[in-house]
## 1
Amino acid sequence: MTDRYAVIGNPVAHSLSPRIHGAFAQQTGHDIEYGAILAPVDGFATAVGTFRAQGGRGLNVTVPFKLDAFALSTTLTARAQSAGAVNTLGFDGGTVLGDNTDGAGLIADITLRLGVPLAARRILLMGAGGAARGVVQPLLEQKPVLLAIANRTVEKAVALAARWISRGDVRGGGYRDFADERFDVIINATSASLSGNLPPLSKRACASATLAYDMVYGERATPFLVAAKSFGVSRVADGLGMLIAQAAESFLLWRGVRPDTGPVIAMLRA
């Protein structure tokens, strides 16, 4: 029997996950069926229950259900516990395994595909919401010399940094607090790009060798990446590689094999 997987969200029609996992299955020779489930905002658990009853083996979880997936899980991976949110579910009998592959996807895309090491680097993480929370631990595991967290609501950045202070030099504050510091890597984990807006990043924080990375992806460069280029940054990247790398982590969890993300990125760019 063909194993069934899907992405669940609201909205979900725009999701690239079916194309990504279809490409992974073809590449690895795995016989899977992968679809998309539009769940009512207040009907996540019911939709998951129906999918499991029909033989579903795993789900990718997108907005707005990552906290619902966290609550539904009977077992959590360490990185899901760290993030406080789940974007991947695996079903085995009565067990619901919750994982969060976002951080692993980000690290894989930056260090492996882009070839930018994060060890002993100065990193600025913009944002202190769910997307940022999911990547703090994986970033710290790379042993940066500094992880600065900047947010418009300063208290959120300070609180997030305080949670991880025992793991390294982690500082939280407002954008002005880091305006005169230079960073090797600047990561936009805010939702500003989705609405065409720009975080108040200081030009002085950027150097020509800085990597500017936006977790958001699209057909055009995001406002953050456009601004970074105007500040003299020579290397920019959007979040498509992260999306595909985190999907590869999900595929590994479900199928025990890690697909090659390069050909899939090239396919979607084309």
## 2
Amino acid sequence: MFVAITRAVSPALASCELTYLDRSPIDVDRARAQHRAYEQALVAAGGRVQQLETSAEMPDSVFVEDIAVVFPELAVVTRPGAESRHGEVAAVAAALAPFRRLYDIQAPGTMDGGDVLVAGRRVVVGVSTRTNEAAVAQLRRILGPFGYAVCATKVTGCLHLKSAVTALDDATLLVNRDWIEPAAFIGFTLVDVDPAEPSAANALRLPDRIVFPSAFPRTARRIAARGLRVVTVDADELAKAEGAVTCCSLIVDTEL
């Protein structure tokens, strides 16, 4: 059993922060429909969705993953790299508090959860336009006593580390090698995205399945070929805001 903390799509989604994509029209109603279907996929996987409210003052808030990183023993509340997102933090922290002991990233550190890849006891943090070395050092101090090894890697070619690499299991990563530094991932089995689908490295790992964007069928087949159950969802409208399937939820294991 798990709880999936989500946040509603803001009416101001079209005013979201953009770093790598050119701004294009976003159909908010369609984005909301895709988000509802995404939440339904989480429920079908055995989760309980806890949706937080949003507002026009928080255009990026549907991408709730950036506001915290959840571990079995604790949760780390981030300090987002875009100042416009600082107002999102309090509600997410309050939602997580019943489930985990909370730790915070403090100034001058900045961190987006989308830059933090957790695979077993290994944590790889992408240093990006949103996450800095000061935050990596803080995360290392927080997680060290719990037995996690934290390393940093540079993010190039995309917004967040998890645009380039996500975990299919504790030992296997889905990657776009053009956007990662391979030395940071020694010891993992790497599954390459299809060359025709460079943006396909973001997959949401759940206990018994992988939730994956329907826009990338070739890479979906590569994942399924490894014996993993793949459930696809439409996420192309949310992708216009530089979002993906991991971005839209915080998965909290409640059976620990």
## 3
Amino acid sequence: MAAFRFAMQASGAASPGAWRDFARKCEDMGYSTLYLPDHLDEQWAPMVACTVAAEATTTLRVGSLVLDNDFRHPVLAAREAATLDVVTGGRFEFGLGAGWLTADYEQSGIPMDRPSVRIARLAESLEIMRSLWQTGTATFSGEHYEVPGAKGFPEPVTPGGPPLVIGGGGRRILTLAGRYASIVSVVPSLAAGYIGPEVAAESILDRYHDRVRWAREAAGERADDLELQCWTAAVQVVPNADEVVESLAPLFDLTPDQLRAAPLALIGTASEIAETLRKRREELGFSYIVVHEAEMDALAPVIAELAGT
């Protein structure tokens, strides 16, 4: 089984100094990676913020979780990712997705095609980027992109390009993730285009078994090389887990047992959460856990116990 590592997902800070301090704190606490999402609400631009965080630290990895493919042409995105790979000394993880949040498209005026089209466009982007990173050039003719002879510069310091993080909750996107990604990030289905009650229904354990299976089947011979990442949402370090679960479950229209088993939930004491994560790694393969700023300090004992083991 892969060793545990933990990532912090944040959207920015009150000031540049606060952001640097936050990155250093992540590093000092044993977090492997600091990720930024890519939405058009109140958050910093991820590639710039990743660069600043990497400059403020020495071992902390940085990454996008995840860039919306529709916001950037793949030739330009590949150059940005390769540059970050170079300037961070290989500490950049390149998360890329097909886009899902309807509000992003409405605000920007970018047309939001149906999911199958967005995923097909992402697949073409990945082909172009992989060629640029692996061969130094790309010539591609597809339904969505025409690239007559792009040059791949700079050459990434990571052989083959920065690690790709691709994830989602649907079969199409997880099949693509299994084929291309080094890190598969498993989340509930976001097909509705917003966070609503259907996300909870998609968070039950059986759905996660399906998602892991789809990615592994698509990966074929490299299935055992995939690093499986689990994004969390409901995290509470508390001494009375049963009471908290009983009170929260009706809010998500789940039974207490369903919420307790849901991989996006971590509820209990630090030692109980550590044991839960061990069981989930054994059952589902999740070794790379993404949490958020609100849980940063409370999870310190969990990270101290599990990171690297």
## 4
Amino acid sequence: MRTIRWGVLGAARIGRTKVIPAMQRATGCAVSALASRSLDKAKAAAAELRIPRAYGSYQELLADAEIDAVYIPLPNHLHVPWTVKAAEAGKHVLCEKPIAMDAAEAWTLVALRDRTGLVIEEAFMVRTHPQWLAVREEVRSGRIGELRAIQTLFSYFNRDPANVRNDASIGGGALMDIGCYPVTLSRFLFEEEPSRVIASIDRDPEFGTDRLTSALLEFPRGQSAFTCSTQLVPAQRVQVLGTKGRIEVEIPVNAPPDQPCRITVDEGRDVFGTGKVARTFEVCDQYTIQAEMFARAVREGGPAPVPLEDSVANMEVIDALVRSARTGTWERPGGSGPAGR
């Protein structure tokens, strides 16, 4: 099996603490180089993670002929520009979410992928985690009856003015950072697109970012409601409700790599939960799974585990939620593609 040699653009905390160590444990993957705008910073991160090569610019890494694919954990506004530069240099790309600042920008990556034949994917690690595959399996089986509603809470507290998540000009804020998860998971479980959406946004008076966003997505078969925040107590939970039962996902996004995950299926006998059955999943690292599946797509010539068209559709929903908060009305996602610009 051919080993896919990775390069990393940037020394972001999520990369250093979560994604890169997980990629290093992935079968058929080797993290061979890391680049930063500061050579000293790149060398320090590479030494910490035992990465062989360090570069003082992203372009230097892209010029490295021994790199097959790059992982991009840069701030949101840099995702598309550096994905384009990486692909133009012949590198496959795994880019952090959200893959673009809006759906129109995301569409440019579809054209880029089609032109270059490279694997380009948004890093939604939840979409390939065993617990979420199991949730969709339970929904499809009819165990909870017909899926009608999904309720999600995802929040943390961060008012650091130096944190990129608190800079509205580069795509910071709750909706882009963590609201993208309930959007993609709702679409994943309903297996269709919402027909219309509505949102309420409360913005930080200093940063201008959405610090509290609540939204309702109306699907042909039901509804998904979520609240996300960058200035609430850290919490996350998902409830998936059907006509006969429900599923609760205890740690829906930040699934721990060192302990089992659990979902609870309640068959709906009564409100006391006497019909609850827990499903526990063996310890796994969702970032390792993500890297292995991406590497397999590279070796086999694609497609990406989560196609770019899905990423575009997710961004269309986010765009519509932003419009809705501004207009105070329901908005319909879509219309960002080549024919709709």
